[in-house]
Structures
1.
Amino acid sequence: MSHNTFGHLFRVTTFGESHGVAIGCVVDGCPPQLALTVEEIQRDLDRRRPGQSRFTTQRQEADQVKILSGVMETASGQVTTGAPIALLIENTDQRSKDYSEIKDKFRPGHADFTYEAKYGLRDYRGGGRSSARETATRVAAGAIARKIVPGVTVRGALVQMGPHRIDREKWDWNEIARNPFFCPDKDKAAFFESYLDGIRKSGSSIGAVIEVVAEGVPAGLGAPIYAKLDGDLAAALMSINAVKGVEIGAGFGAAELSGEDNADEMRSSSSNMGNNGPVFLSNHAGGILGGISTGQPVVARFAVKPTSSILSPRKTVDRNGADTDIFTKGRHDPCVGIRAVPVGEAMVACVLADHFLRHRGQVGPR
Amino acid sequence: MSHNTFGHLFRVTTFGESHGVAIGCVVDGCPPQLALTVEEIQRDLDRRRPGQSRFTTQRQEADQVKILSGVMETASGQVTTGAPIALLIENTDQRSKDYSEIKDKFRPGHADFTYEAKYGLRDYRGGGRSSARETATRVAAGAIARKIVPGVTVRGALVQMGPHRIDREKWDWNEIARNPFFCPDKDKAAFFESYLDGIRKSGSSIGAVIEVVAEGVPAGLGAPIYAKLDGDLAAALMSINAVKGVEIGAGFGAAELSGEDNADEMRSSSSNMGNNGPVFLSNHAGGILGGISTGQPVVARFAVKPTSSILSPRKTVDRNGADTDIFTKGRHDPCVGIRAVPVGEAMVACVLADHFLRHRGQVGPR
Amino acid sequence: MSHNTFGHLFRVTTFGESHGVAIGCVVDGCPPQLALTVEEIQRDLDRRRPGQSRFTTQRQEADQVKILSGVMETASGQVTTGAPIALLIENTDQRSKDYSEIKDKFRPGHADFTYEAKYGLRDYRGGGRSSARETATRVAAGAIARKIVPGVTVRGALVQMGPHRIDREKWDWNEIARNPFFCPDKDKAAFFESYLDGIRKSGSSIGAVIEVVAEGVPAGLGAPIYAKLDGDLAAALMSINAVKGVEIGAGFGAAELSGEDNADEMRSSSSNMGNNGPVFLSNHAGGILGGISTGQPVVARFAVKPTSSILSPRKTVDRNGADTDIFTKGRHDPCVGIRAVPVGEAMVACVLADHFLRHRGQVGPR
Amino acid sequence: MSHNTFGHLFRVTTFGESHGVAIGCVVDGCPPQLALTVEEIQRDLDRRRPGQSRFTTQRQEADQVKILSGVMETASGQVTTGAPIALLIENTDQRSKDYSEIKDKFRPGHADFTYEAKYGLRDYRGGGRSSARETATRVAAGAIARKIVPGVTVRGALVQMGPHRIDREKWDWNEIARNPFFCPDKDKAAFFESYLDGIRKSGSSIGAVIEVVAEGVPAGLGAPIYAKLDGDLAAALMSINAVKGVEIGAGFGAAELSGEDNADEMRSSSSNMGNNGPVFLSNHAGGILGGISTGQPVVARFAVKPTSSILSPRKTVDRNGADTDIFTKGRHDPCVGIRAVPVGEAMVACVLADHFLRHRGQVGPR
């Protein structure tokens, strides 16, 4: 069971609410003797941190992470021991505010009604457990996960905002760090600046599509049928707040293709195949066939809906079932998809780490 | 861990290869005292059975299921006992054939290379474990799952074939059983007949999109963060052979929407809210918010790639890494998406059954 | 969750009732390319098979096992493929009999009342799912498990029957196969023959203690805290029907020892320590410290209660709660502990296989 | 998988090392709307806390627990929300000391060698993760677990120290809190005082047996075959540091009994059977038959070996494989079994809570 845990051999359990004392996670199953410093984790957290531009929530959180367990100093620096690694991030900006507006009303598009329907009560302070704040702990866990599969690089990019898609011909990974959108298309990033400003100023919000690419994934990761690599990626990405769709490789586009166009042909690699497998002449598969990695880049995309916290009044009901209107005040992200980029990377890194360990266990060294 | 098992309280473990002795599954965790006959399971299996029209593989399989355990006769008929229910389907048409073409060559778009990369060998007879034949056992398990959540109806439909989408205004569930495509749009079904005939005769294949709708799902099913109802649906649907994308409700379309357009507003229901929750004025959420069901219909779609078994020669490599061409002979489905409809229904039914039991355990009767 | 499944990377799911059509299991997670024949599995099953002496139930079951999936013929013989291995044993001797005596009465010491309390009904035919017949499938799975840890030998012995313990000085593994009790002490075996004959003729029954020894277990198997090797062994052995106690190494005897007497001292091995670790000067630990194997033999013991199916009338209640007496007719084992020996071996083999794979995944090759 | 997690619907994940910054746990799956205060958890922790008498380690730890998440204030006090409850205990007395003696030598009877064999390194400071300090977090989790099964009381007692067993005729639960041994036999407690003083002063240690009794367990908890209530109890109790044996009810004594003596006869209860089931005339079963609770008290015992930290020099090897002697200085428990009493209670409470939720999910309200 895994309500607040994901993974099998590499397992992450998260805890904490938006406006509680602290959030954190326990990373269990990390192999021993991996070099790990708090700075490496902080670096990833800083990429997700709110309040870094006018395009994300103005909540100010330092998101300073502490390692509580699972590492020790050795002659060659701080390393993992094989024991569970607990990470803690204290909440500092839970802004004391008036909750009367949302305490008894269900915000449309949020999990207010469903948490109440499930549990009979809900933590209304900042969304409680359903807040995207929880994703900070995923990014922290992902920083550890990145170290597990030798040679893997996991990078994400915003490839669509509203109806506007990037020009794939202009894809430049170096651009990602140069704009506040993690956008790999320089021109589109410039456009998004004014586009999103308009949305922000009008108090509205907009959806986005994120693409995560993992390069250097060895062939053979994944497992048959119900532990497919793409099945686990789908669950992991769909578990991110506000995600409504996931696709691998050609994705929904594959529905429009013929077998000739879709199936990726192969040619022998110049080097020996044993190491690298064949050269694929295309990658509609997104690096996964039959649930198992092909050795090509793993490519996953996910759709993030617009945040439902907007500044215009909305029809809803209160806890007593009476009709009312609700008016969301306070800080919000005009495009929550932006900060989902490092979260998506983290989830992909965690899934790959887990499958790397599982594959090593199940099939082992030859 | 769950290589060949899915679910938690309602758990299904499947086994068997395309051309082996038999396929089957073990359904564990089914509550006791549910009426269950072999005919009910057979009825669902017959909907998926190959060879029923010229648009699916001509393999002839009776797909006769046997119940090996977990039920007993009582005064009120045959019921489940709470013990694991084992189901067995013998393979009858494993057509003795010449495997020399595919034994040492990797079919593009199939799991041939990846199984070999993972395991160092593969069962090349009809695809072995990676064959869609395994999905018959899912349909059998799904027939049991359908009985668990009181009042739930799970139905699927083919909503797109190649670039051709159905007209949603013409959606009629009664049409599903009247054409060989599970298509709810009568006119489009007529079109698909000639369209797919052309593809079939040319030895090509085409992708499709399937939509599954579950009505009568009570509010409150699902669980936070890593056991979200949509996360589990995404994993379950992505685990179906050839699926490359999954979306819930507005799905990828949500990326193009503003917060005003996307968030589903609420109004009080005329009856008491306790039972049914509010009336939602739209269903972009696809019946799920924060990973938990809203009480609206749960709507999931998945994209099925075109089968890679086509009649034109394709570039590939052999097991020794040498370049070669491969030419797939034999039976195939011109649109594997068609038979994925009952499989998709079964997966959704299984996920709902599992979450119903988990919710009952976790939150329980008030 | 694991009602009818055990293990994580090496997972066994069993099904079937005593008097149903068939019993069987699905072994998932077995590494590929292991040589495996049906004869190897049958050999282990034959050691557990009933009706082989007058000291076990006279039920006649051929216990012929079939492999339904997960293996294929290769140039070097039949091997595992990495796919789930389904094993099936048809029930042949479910003797048509009159169940009226036990249908509505709860047999003391059996699971009759508890199954009814849990499920609201029970399969009264031969004990249904709670029958020891299920253990045949464990022995079959164990035969596969034995092949996974290189160099491991798992052997069991009956070391106590009623109050009579074997003389450990006379322990000879070769004796195990020479008497119907799996007893390693030749003299005690001769005594047991007349002792158990007396019990059998009087229609009574007696308890026993079984010891399982696994030699060749590499140091390092097991995992911290809640996945300790001894924790998993305890659960696995306690899951065998009629087992009421489990101990490792000195076991309950350790409660009477001082720290000086109990802790196993170490000396360097003549060979290099890297391979074999230190030489331990005693083995009170039973080969496990901190939940992790030391490299010494793993020693586990379990207590089996006397069967509650005896020929004297017993006080009980019926399904309506009325007082009554019950008189068990029919076949029974005067000492069910005897046939628990191969079952205990199988469970230990399965736990070791699982931990071997988990260790390889978690820590991997250096 | 569950290296540092136990339970399924009620799940506990623990973290932290003996001499690290903090220890803690995440309790996931706790039902919502349970009243829970930090004082209730602290009360249980205080019973286990070291340094309360001269018979336990003199390490001074306040063991002040903080609740980081999963609760909220309501009109009727602080309650659980259904979100994961994170508990944190800061380490305060990690006494800066000289580790040179144990850093490179393996202490006999400890997990030093095995952790090193598994992970290639170990946290030698106070035993790191293998220290009994981890059990404080179990007691904290157990305090929550106690609230889940309505009407259940879980109490433990020390029933044997070295070869000295209590007189069961003198059992008085009220005595438990009146002596530093959790001993229910007043006279034996007085004896233990001088007995253990002798052992303590000589720098030696001694083993013990603990009995845990759960009253008010409803009939029907547990699950077939591999999720038996006794199987889970065995794993849970064996996972406590230094435990070498577990038994239920008559336990190993059952091996010496005949079927007539062992099987618990039944008589109708004066009240209606529906609620309470039959009256059992004895409880050799320890409240569990076929892995499912009978409604009688659940009785489990476990054997705790003497601590291996003693003041006389012991033969061992160092990390280089060279022979050496080791001399354990510092604080230790002369009988670690004493503090295992509240830990055993906590584990039993957790297993019962988990099975209560699972039963409710699986079988549900009728």
2.
Amino acid sequence: MLRQSPQKINGNFKGKDIISFDQFSTRDIKNIFSLVPKMRKIALLAKPSKILAGKIIVLLFYEPSSRTFGSFSTAIKQLGGQTVEIHNPQEFSSVAKGETFEDTIRVFEAYSDAIVIRHPQKGTASNAAAVAKFVPIINAGDGTGEHPTQALLDLYTIYEKHEKLDNLVGVLAGDMLNGRTVHSLIRGLSLFKKNTLYLLSPKQLKLSKSDFEDFTKRAIKLVEIEKETDIPKNAHFWYWTRVQKERFKKLKEYEKVKNSFIVTQKLLKKYGNPNLILMHPLPRIYEIEKEVDSDPRAIYLKTEIRNGLYVRMALLKLTLGII
Amino acid sequence: MLRQSPQKINGNFKGKDIISFDQFSTRDIKNIFSLVPKMRKIALLAKPSKILAGKIIVLLFYEPSSRTFGSFSTAIKQLGGQTVEIHNPQEFSSVAKGETFEDTIRVFEAYSDAIVIRHPQKGTASNAAAVAKFVPIINAGDGTGEHPTQALLDLYTIYEKHEKLDNLVGVLAGDMLNGRTVHSLIRGLSLFKKNTLYLLSPKQLKLSKSDFEDFTKRAIKLVEIEKETDIPKNAHFWYWTRVQKERFKKLKEYEKVKNSFIVTQKLLKKYGNPNLILMHPLPRIYEIEKEVDSDPRAIYLKTEIRNGLYVRMALLKLTLGII
Amino acid sequence: MLRQSPQKINGNFKGKDIISFDQFSTRDIKNIFSLVPKMRKIALLAKPSKILAGKIIVLLFYEPSSRTFGSFSTAIKQLGGQTVEIHNPQEFSSVAKGETFEDTIRVFEAYSDAIVIRHPQKGTASNAAAVAKFVPIINAGDGTGEHPTQALLDLYTIYEKHEKLDNLVGVLAGDMLNGRTVHSLIRGLSLFKKNTLYLLSPKQLKLSKSDFEDFTKRAIKLVEIEKETDIPKNAHFWYWTRVQKERFKKLKEYEKVKNSFIVTQKLLKKYGNPNLILMHPLPRIYEIEKEVDSDPRAIYLKTEIRNGLYVRMALLKLTLGII
């Protein structure tokens, strides 16, 4: 669509690009969330929906991502739309011959009703949106940039459990320095009131100074902690991410902290409460022990994934739906 | 689904994993076969079926297989279902980062109504089934393990022609030692009565001792032969497979036998009868001469492939169909 | 279908292979074009068409081509058909094991209602058609051979603007020696009356002697020109293609001509007229400057691409449509 930077949604999603979480007001977020129960119903129904009937949506994936690809492909098909799936266009002859990114986008917008784009480079989705004249662009992750539907599904998962997005206490654990999903979640929760987040990470992986300053200007309380004994017992959710060994200069320092950043039954018993939910953006490697999977509070492998599907369906309905 | 080893079907396919041919009783096999005429009709009709309406089935292919992939993709679409197609997930970022096979399966089951899995490693489909809690797993070939729908289509092709699966005489030719499809066919026919199979192969490629012992305990008569002059003239079917040169230690031995294991018009004329069918699991390289393709008994390039489609449609209907 | 060389259409497309532009008479071309408005309407409608309902069409792409792939995939889905998409079958196990091209075609025709084939090697589509016994083959480009739907969309784009295909003046610029699309367009326009084409190219990239002789036997007037000052001001269309530096033996000669073969606002102002259209088969690299994109006469990035979609839809309807 013709525009300079991603437009604010302001209650009207129809035909707009979805590039950044910053486009959403709290009301927009609530709008999306209010559609989730209906989307879940559609996904479980045998009868396909007609919400995207006759719509062709290009999935333009410059890097493989089975999870996000599968989720968008499923969401579109559950709504009765169809996909044209392009994997790794950069290896295709036209691009190899030197076709610009801009021309590639304009080619695919000529075929389709929308383009869902995934790209390893920050800013690409926004560039695509600046080029596309006729159809909306939906950002499915642009490198270290944004992945707005991931942020939405994380927020929704908390909302679904606790029926609110304010007055929450959360623990974010792992890599605060580089974690894109962690940053999005902080930004998301700061739109609402009186939330407190405990950021559990080794020194080396604390928020960068600039991120810390940026976030503390917002309406959110951040408490940086370094030891598991600092975990508050009244948390509504734990959001766990991976601490990578290779981020440490000294192996000894890694050895010292590594066990504080692995969720075990013991850790859950000691610091958790019956009401919390244990989240993870996935892929999970070793930072949550397998024995924890069967705990009813562990919702990363089923509820979160399905919420990702429903939230994407809701967003597609609002942006492209004909009914 | 929650289970330890593949469940017996026992007349009820609904929601069950399809991992191994051993899950089927003769009655289950007949159930599948009885649906084939209806499936053929659906495939030829212009109106899409609603048997899988609203269903999303993930095709999770860890190795490429155009034939099996195409057949399952077509079967699902002919029944009105939709596919989410994932090629080579092991190259995708999540798996590359170290995500376990188990987590990958649980991610895809959260999106879908079933997972059709193809994997180069034996036992993988069964592992997937042990992990998947909510949707059935269908084995589309796990290396040297099983490929139950291939076995079904071979049996059906014989059944369609001869209207019975007992009192048959068959010739299985080529590599008895390593041939997965040959082993499945022997196992399949041993479920029925009074079948005799002549196993034509060079010495080096005879059944292993353990396979021979296993098979001869079953209700089937096996006759190992080494020369084309031993081919019985009353065979109901020839099931030809490839003899690979590289399996021989001495080239001379290969040279001695190689011509006995190629189907020519001459061979068909000398040892065949008007009523037999010439089958091949494909790909066929040189072991059936091209001139034979036009013989009406040569059914590998059309009838067998289409039967594979119909048998898969029937199995999907029984396992997942809503009507 | 059983046949030796591509059959003339002669007013009846149903079930025929589409291999070469030479199969079409002017009446056949007009038939296709007369359907385009209806196809456009279908593409814009929310309700999916039923013209290809229940049809499965295999897209068998031996080389990647995002543009043609996307166009055919979209065309089929807009008409209510379904695709089975096979990328790079040559890397798949069956073909890697030595399966012949002929067997691959026969496997896929057993699943499908038609095969759209793309292959880097000239003559492959025709070979596929000679093998396929039951379903039509549609050529989506066979190397330096043909790409009949590209030729159709170029002709249609001119026809749509000028409402005729005779008495036209056109400028074809760039590489006349190697340009497949240029040759097709000359051949296409020579089916109609009193067309004049100015072929603007550096000496090194003029038509080959044999092509020139072939074309001048046809009912078309060709004028070879070498300088932009020779561009006629009354052209109905400019059809621009790329001049590749590496085609020149002497860099100096390239330097001398290169600026004559780049479309700029200035060039358009000096030699263009308000009524012409500026076409390009894409990908466009640098031979049309970006500033030209916003000129209303520049139709390569939207109108041509969409016409490609509509023309393919029309052809599929005529060849395979059930209504």
